[in-house]
Amino acid sequence: MQVEIESRRVRFLCIAAFVAAISAAMGYFSALQGAVAAQSAAPSGHVESDPWSASQTIQPSKLTKELGESKGTAKPVVVCIGFRPLYVGAHVPGAVFHGPAQSEQGLADLKKWAQGVSRSANLVVYCGCCPLEHCPNIRPAFNALRDMGFTNLRVLLLPHDFATDWVEKGYPVEKGAEK
After folding, report:
1. Could you say which DSSP state residue 151 is in?
2. Residue 52, phi-psi category: left (phi > 0), alpha (psi -120 to 50), beta (remainder)
3. How does pLDDT run across 110-145, given as a tens digit for each residue?
4. For 101, which of 12, 135, 137, 145 could close a Cys bridge (C-beta 3.0–4.6 Å)?
5. Among residues 122, 123, 135, 143, which one has the least CA distance to residue 162?
């Protein structure tokens, strides 16, 4: 089991390194760099406030339980709003991909998809590309969906990244593009 987890982690980290290199080359992380610079200039101990409350978050263990026990409209609709190569490498089972939310195209794709979703749907968004506090995708996605009127919207808490906080913990994954 440990060998399988390590193998998953190595594959995921290879994909993550590739995505990071491509993203950096394309300038995707310019927004992240600006946010980090602004945070560095902020007074010591100051952290930008998240747009979600504690009640609008979910831990991986709780999401796994909900996915296994819920049926019908109560079952969470999970949306990966990060980078496609990371989604293809490994994602939450049943998750759909609409991102990256930091780009105009990715955010437009997310909003277009969300038009057909009930505003009361049990919706969970996650990225997992990097530490949550610096993620360039999660806040734009959360804000856009909240502003569209989603009333049961939550953020999957992945404080480090998807590999560390989901894959290495042994939670189930699916691989490949959407079916």
Report:
1. S
2. beta
3. 999 999 999 999 999 999 999 999 999 999 999 999
4. 137
5. 135
For residue 100, cis peptide bond before it (omega within 30 degrees of 0): yes
Task: Report the side by side order of strands in the sheet with 57-58.
Answer: 57-58, 153-156, 123-126, 77-80, 96-97
Q: Around Cβ 66, how many Cβ atoms within 10 Å?
A: 17
Confirm whether 54 is domain-assigned: yes
- Report pTM: 0.75
In one letter, which amino acid is 48?
A: E
Which contacts of 27-30 are long-range, i.e. CB under 8 A and separated by 24 or more positions?
28/100, 28/102, 28/103, 28/136, 29/136
Per DSSP, the three-state class of 30 is helix
Amino acid occupying residue 142: F
Is 25 within a domain? Answer: yes
Q: What is the DSSP letter of 118?
A: -
Distance CA 135, CA 159 (A): 10
Domain CATH for 153: 3.40.250.10
Q: Is residue 94 part of a domain?
A: yes
